[in-house]
Amino acid sequence: MLLTIPTAVTPPWTTMLGFSLLPAVVMIAGAALAVWRAPGPQLRSAILHFAAGVIFSVVAVELLPDIVQHHAPYEVALGFGLGVATMLGLRYFTQRLEKKEAAGKEAQPTATGSGPTQATAAALPWGLLVAIGIDIFIDGLLLGIGFAAGAKEGTLLAIALTIELLSLGLATAVELRQDGHGKGRAVAIVAGTSLMLLIGAGIGTTVLRGATGNMLEIVLSFGLAALLFLVTEELLTEAHEEPETPLMTLAFFVGFLLFLLLGMVA
Q: Domain segments of the chain: what residues?
């Protein structure tokens, strides 16, 4: 039996792609900030907590009620299962790349002298960049899924992902600087990586724009699982690498409450 879902207020695709520019630009700005003055670990952890609270709020307030409202358990189970399987598969793939990258770095100082070692230090960390690129591409798809649910959901999710990518831009630039890349090159690499968000958003807005009925339920459930995975297994995991303090925990709830209230008045 096909679902009858009210048509969401979906903005033009140019508007949706315009919103996707915001997280990409902020990610580049975060990289520029990091090479100018790297933030402390506690500040970065607070940003991650806040971003996790924001995304969790968007999931709970905007996506989840729409999914539950239409009572399509089979479609929800299928979409949610596909989302979890996809994110677990991507984690396995990216972790393997990161391990190879780390093993290569450990082998460099003992395999060569000071001259070759300095040259290889500036080589691109492909494992890290591929992992980040995949993560950003998924974020772009999720942005398309958000706009498939409606203009309000997509806009809130764009703001939430902006906060996440600010932290990611900061962390990536710091890692590149530690690997021996210059300030300008580090920012340029982050800028190139941020294009994956635009590609993912472009695919999401064009492919998912006409989704209705059962297909929309599957797509939204996929996005629900991916966003929950992002919060619990990525943002909060990285945030907890630093000793937890009450202020950091508070940042999560401030982010959740802020977007809860914004969703109510928007």
A: 13-265
DSSP letters along 217-244, please?
A: HHHHHHHHHHHHHIIIIIIHHHHTTSPP
pTM for this entry: 0.70
How many Å from the N-terminal Cα to the C-terminal Cα in the chain? 34
**C-beta of residue 168 within 8 angstroms of C-beta of residue 189:** no
Q: Which amino acid is at 15?
A: T
- Among residues 82, 134, 123, 81, which one has the least CA distance to residue 101? 123
pLDDT digits (tens, 9 = 90+) for 58-80: 888 878 887 888 788 899 999 99
Amino acid at the residue 182: G
Closest CA to 56 of 184, 183, 234, 193: 234
Q: What is the rounded CA–CA span in Å between residue 173 and residue 169?
A: 6
